[in-house]
Amino acid sequence: MRGxxxxxxxxxxxxxxxxxxxICGAYGKLYGSPMVRDLFxxxxxxxxxxxxLVLILLLYFAGTDLxxxxxxxxxxxxxxxxxxxxxxxxxxxxxxxYSTEVLRGAILAIPQGQIEAARAYGMSPALQLRRITLxxxxxFAIPGxxxxxxxxxxxxxxxxxxxxxxxxQTTRLAAGATKAYFxxxxxxxxxxxxxxxxxxxxxxxxxxxxxxxxxxLAETR
Length: 221
Hints:
MetI-like fold; mainly alpha; flat; single chain
């Protein structure tokens, strides 16, 4: 259960960070300068092309070393980066690339008349984002973001390779100590399944709320 709580904490943190990066990336790719669009395009291409395990190893070890080298150059002593924070940041970078494309597609699905009306009213970009873009794109974004959340809960298992005691690593240690591999890994599978089922219930509520006032899906096909 401690491993499950650690996995949920990392998944929540990385999903939230990825969502923040995704909003910035989607806006950058749609409305940014050519250089900004190229930078975000490079970011999403590289992250989606390189296997996630390789990215985790690269960012976790090389990123930590880079931070300590920069601190040394600035005259500060090296620090031990908290494993939880490092795990959230690493998976957040991965989630951000996929969130960027999901949110970009959702923004493009918004009827352009709503965006033009907001501009005609003189809304600032921040106000337009808060009052028009985010609520209007939610029905189109939630299915993709739901998949990303479920992927985030599974990707926490990859942090076992760097020794972080999330659910998979804790299960492996317990199974190795007791030799009851079947019992512990079946228990871990059940916990992952329970997390997925609870997540699906919560996501379905969010989706129904975001589609309030809209025709049912069966009528829009």
